[in-house]
Design a protein that fits this description.
It contains eight helices and 21 strands. It is an alpha+beta fold. The protein folds into two domains: 237 residues, 3-Layer(aba) Sandwich (Rossmann fold), CATH 3.40.50; 161 residues, Lipoxygenase-1, CATH 2.60.60.30. Strands 1, 2, 3, 4, 5, 6, 7 and 8 form an eight-stranded mixed beta sheet that branches. The chain has a seven-stranded mixed beta sheet with strand order 9-19-18-11-16-15-14, with no helix packed on it. The longest helix has 14 residues.
């Protein structure tokens, strides 16, 4: 029996909620690879881990490939000639290493990432089965650009069919996901949203993919013309791609970072996220020129230029829990403490897989993990304050107390 070729591209959402997915995929790659090898297939793996965040000039994107990440990799993909070794490997352990090094961060733009994957240097159609598998726990319409990418979905569907790509998608059901089902031989796995695909049995799903690839028929004939870079990513300037130096800052206890002050900060989003089955609450204790000393939390959700969106985790619900405080004009605030209080006492705060992320209109992305190990009612996670140089800084505190925090005490 002649050896046949499979080019299999894994497309993995790397936004915050997907953290649990990375290890699952890494641990079960052989459940895809082994059946294909037994059926005499030679497999090349491609990979894109993708995330996105708002930036001053529009969204910025973080795409991780087998050969690296950042603007250089985008130039390699959309330049000529394209070196397939930058985007494919025959070594599954190389994919596992990339998965092991991923950081969950920011937001996503799945349709754009799918378009980039469809531009990969696949082997010839007459000898290669081309496959893309997408894993995301957010609807395709819910990314950093919201509904805008959906306008190009018909062109993307046509491109996938022209390139004769077999598509697998694990994602929450939505209208856009239904439209992707129009791709020839597409297989859609509707999943729960926002939980990092915790409900997915990756061993079973990857084995099913291998079986489907094995029994699918090759499509004869020359590949027709197709549109590269439907979303214009071949024309990106380097500042549209996040690099190692511009990825989010993760602070250790006691560390501080100064926020960018190139322009006035007109928007700050402070997000508390956790997955443990506990009811945490996000609080902001602050001093401002408009309100004096004040407190925003679930029972008093807004002040001047500061708003809390929701009360999550009620009833000690586990999974993807998230509360957001938005500050619309930072210059009015002298000092803010971001704290959490557990509604029902339990373990230490370090047990809850929690973190606060602070993103600004100037592109700052600062993460403060919840690491306090001593039990107490309150944990003061981070402080945002004026830095004496006309700007603001964030400091990781992770200080616990049994008394309600006060801005003068930290």
């Amino acid at each position: 029996m002649n050896t046949q070729n499979v080019d299999f591209v894994l497309l993995v959402d790397c936004s915050e909620s997907m953290r649990p997915c990375f290890a699952q995929l890494r641990d079960h790659l052989n459940d895809l690879l082994y059946p294909l090898q037994q059926a005499n297939f030679r497999v090349r793996f491609g990979f894109i881990g993708y995330a996105a965040a708002p930036g001053r000039g529009g969204p910025v994107y973080d795409h991780t490939f087998i050969g690296g990440s950042g603007p250089d990799m985008m130039r390699k993909l959309y330049g000529t000639p394209v070196n397939a070794a930058d985007f494919f490997t025959t070594d599954p352990s190389a994919v596992a290493r990339v998965l092991g090094g991923l950081e969950a961060q920011g937001n996503e733009d799945t349709l754009m990432a799918l378009d980039i994957a469809a531009d990969f240097p696949f082997g010839p159609t007459e000898s290669t089965r081309r496959v893309i598998a997408v894993f995301t726990d957010e609807p395709l319409e819910a990314g950093v650009s919201e509904l805008a990418p959906v306008a190009q979905l018909p062109a993307l569907v046509q491109k996938l069919m022209s390139r004769r790509i077999q598509l697998f998608v694990a994602a929450p059901y939505s209208d856009a996901l239904g439209d992707l089902g129009a791709v020839d031989r597409a297989e859609i796995e509707a999943v729960d949203g926002g939980d990092g695909l915790k409900s997915v049995d990756f061993r079973k799903l990857l084995a099913q993919m291998a079986k489907s690839i094995s029994v699918s028929t090759m499509q004869a004939g020359r590949e027709p013309s197709w549109q590269r870079a439907i979303y214009g990513q071949d024309r990106w300037t380097s500042d549209r791609s996040i690099t190692e130096s511009s990825r989010r800052t993760v602070l250790s206890v006691g560390e501080s970072v100064r926020l960018s002050s190139n322009e006035p900060i007109t928007n700050v989003n402070v997000r508390l996220q956790w997955t443990a089955a506990v009811d945490l609450d996000l609080h902001a204790f602050y001093r401002s020129s408009a309100d004096g000393q004040a407190h925003v939390y679930f029972a008093s959700r807004s002040g001047t230029d500061i708003v809390l969106d929701t009360d999550a985790g009620i009833g000690d619900r586990g999974g993807h829990n998230e509360e957001n405080i938005t500050i619309s004009w930072l210059d009015g605030f002298d000092e803010i403490l971001f704290a959490t209080k557990i509604f029902a006492k339990g373990g230490s705060y370090a047990d809850y897989d929690g973190r606060v992320s602070i993103q600004t209109s100037n592109g700052d992305d600062v993460t403060v993990p919840l690491t306090a190990t001593r039990r107490a009612d309150w944990c003061v996670i981070a402080k945002l304050e004026r830095d004496g140089q006309g700007g603001h800084q964030v400091t990781n505190l992770n200080a616990v107390t049994d008394r309600e925090p006060h801005v003068d005490a930290f």
